[in-house]
TrEMBL record:
The keyword Disulfide bond does not apply. The keyword Transmembrane does not apply. This is RHG27 protein. PROSITE patterns: RHOGAP. Residues 1-136 form the Rho-GAP domain. GO terms for cellular component: cytoplasm. SMART domains: RhoGAP. It comes from Catharus fuscescens.
């Protein structure tokens, strides 16, 4: 219910805006990639056959609930634009994936190997960024 004045100077710092976006996504009751899909995406990114991997990830994205799919489409379109300006902002595909991977995909419980999951979480985000046109 808070009213924000986006003309306030504190919003000029891109790190504040990005931090707010990441915080919003992290605090969702369920991540953008629902818990029910986490293991499926991790299994898909491990597929060695690149063509099969691509189809599997596209099908998984298409199988998301509409609100998750639509939000993901808009967010990744924006993140692709961020990557287009990597020379100025130093945010390559890999950098964006490292920043957003653990926020967008996370297991329901943190009992398993978090470090190993993080590698695959980042790879999923990187794959979606690299193949945005095919996936969406």
């Amino acid at each position: 219910d808070e009213q924000l004045d986006l003309d306030d100077g504190r919003w000029e710092d891109i790190h504040v805006v990005t931090g707010a976006l990441k915080l919003f996504l992290r605090e969702l009751p369920e991540p953008l990639v629902p818990f029910s899909h986490f293991d499926k995406f991790i299994a898909a990114i491990k597929i060695q056959d690149l063509s099969l991997r691509g189809r599997c990830i596209r099908d998984l994205v298409l199988s998301l609930p509409p609100c998750h799919h639509d939000t993901m489409k808009v967010l990744f379109r924006h993140l692709c634009r961020v990557v287009e300006h990597k020379e100025e902002n130093r945010m390559s595909v890999q950098s964006v994936a490292i920043v957003f991977g653990p926020t967008l995909l996370r297991p329901a419980s943190e009992e398993s190997n978090m470090a190993m999951h993080m590698v695959f979480q980042n790879q999923v985000v990187e794959h979606i960024l690299n193949h945005y046109g095919y996936i969406f």
